[in-house]
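Re: weekly structure request thread

Next one in the queue (263 aa):
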Amino acid sequence: QLALAESYRNVVAGGAIPLAVTNCLNFGSPEDPEVMWQFAEATRGLADGCLQLDIPVTGGNVSFYNQTGDTAINPTPVVGVLGVIDDVARRTPIAWGPAGDLIYVLGDTRDEFGGSEWAHHVHGHLGGRPPAVDLERERLLGELLVAGSRDGLFTAAHDVSDGGIAQVLVEMALASNTGGRCSVPDGVDPFTYLFSESAGRAVVVLPAEHEGRFVDVCAARGLPAARIGVVDGGEELEFAGLFSVALAELREAHEGTLPRLFG
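Done, posted below.
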């Protein structure tokens, strides 16, 4: 269901309406009772999620016997969501706009690091309880993102998933080649806020003249919205009181891995 929710969020962040689901469900041998249980629970969870979001599975495939000897791969469901947008020229990009645009986070951030990029890359750990799924929150977030795109409310939007809010801000800054000044809301642990992978969240960027309308829309829908920064047109991504990093350094880290590995 987390994979379904993330794919759904990918589509609505661009302003498209989710209409259908496809999948590739990869598991070990179904002759192993544990693997068969994993498969049954994955398909049941996907079916329940699709019913709740009201989008059908229109195609997909299952791949079994993915293992070496008696060691099966980790259960690996891959989920894709198809969305339709009336006018692709009006889609919401991830590259944020001009200096002065405001940066908001939609949704709640919790201390949820099980299965996260941070746990995997920093500690080599794969385990723990994954973030909780709230499909009604995903639907609510999706409705707002699609309506905001249709009405020209946003200059940019990006769903939050792997790597958390910090990763999203980096990708948006690099896509626009423009820096921003951000801060963590008072009373919130900075590390948790920047790197937690809680579901049901997105970062949106909007002109200052749309702020009042945007805040009213979020309040009417009961969707938490926190202003965390502003696009400043500079060459750094700054987190007030914490650190700043140059876009050039971020771009090298973001784009330099494959050249370093393969020359």
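The chain has a mean pLDDT of 96. The first strand starts at residue 17 and ends at 26.
Next request, please.
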